[in-house]
Amino acid sequence: MSTEIRTFRIPDTDAEPAQAELSAFLRTVEVERIDTAYADGAWRVLVLFQDLRRKEESLQIETAIAAALNGWRDRVAARDGVPRDAILPDDLVPEIARYAPTTEHELGVLVGSRDLDIGPHGAEIVGVVRSTLEDLID
Asked: Which of 97, 98, 115, 123 is the most exposed place for a label (fewest CB within 10 A)?
């Protein structure tokens, strides 16, 4: 999720409406940083933030992808007679869910720093991610 920026101007005179607007805004976002500066009879407030609604949507998407990947892992592990961690390590599921790779190349970049061979299941993993995203859009 990306950081967004919004600026506010709080004048020396009649500051209350501007302060109320800033306060109301701050209740709806997750603040990463606030910078202030004073110039020309007013405070300038710079807010770096993440929109909480978008954050909630992202968490819902990640949860849906992780659930779909876990269901797929269970089915493949049962079919192949191996532990599900042998199909896809537990700690990799949330990472895949977070980045939602939709191509085998993207998946390869994501797991490239690990010494894992997901080659036999790469296309299936990407297929699970894609179909989950499509289901969420519909």
From this structure: 115
Between the CA atoms of 54, 57, 61 and 67, what dihedral angle is there, to the nearest 10 degrees? 140
Contact 108, 126 (CB under 8 A): no
What are the CA-CA distances from residue 52 to residues 26, 56, 75, 78, 99 (Å)?
Answer: 10, 6, 35, 39, 19
* Segment 51-79, tens digit of pLDDT: 777 777 888 899 999 999 999 999 999 99
Tell me how far apart the terminal alpha carbons of the chain are, to the nearest angstrom. 22
Q: What is the pTM of this model?
A: 0.63
Residue 92 near residue 108 (C-beta atoms within 8 A):
no
